[in-house]
Amino acid sequence: MRYCSTSLLIALCGTALLVAGCASSKRVVIDDKGVDPAAYQQDLAECQTIADQVTTGRDAAGGALGGAVIGGALGAIFGNSSTAGRMAGGGAVIGGAGKAGEAEQEKGQVLRNCLRGRGYRVLN
């Protein structure tokens, strides 16, 4: 039982770190010298709409499925059906969070590229 608690704690901590990284991936810093704030807000909103076209839900689901399969297989090899179930659950959490994090990073990159394309000097 202690093993399950430790595995769950590790999975939750990893997920929290990924989510924290995702939260900052769309924060954009520009050099605002000579920039009209109203025009920038309009361009930022339009670029965010474009960036939101990157799918996160499907990527997260695919990562969760892959993580569950790998975790379950490893649990079955190195343990019993109970271990396989726990490992599949942990693999699903980690796989889903990892893919969601990658998709959020891609959204941030699309947002930055869009703003650069509109003539802003993006600093991050």
TrEMBL record:
<protein>
    <recommendedName>
        <fullName>Glycine zipper family protein</fullName>
    </recommendedName>
</protein>
<keyword id="KW-0732">Signal</keyword>
<feature type="signal peptide">
    <location>
        <begin position="1"/>
        <end position="25"/>
    </location>
</feature>
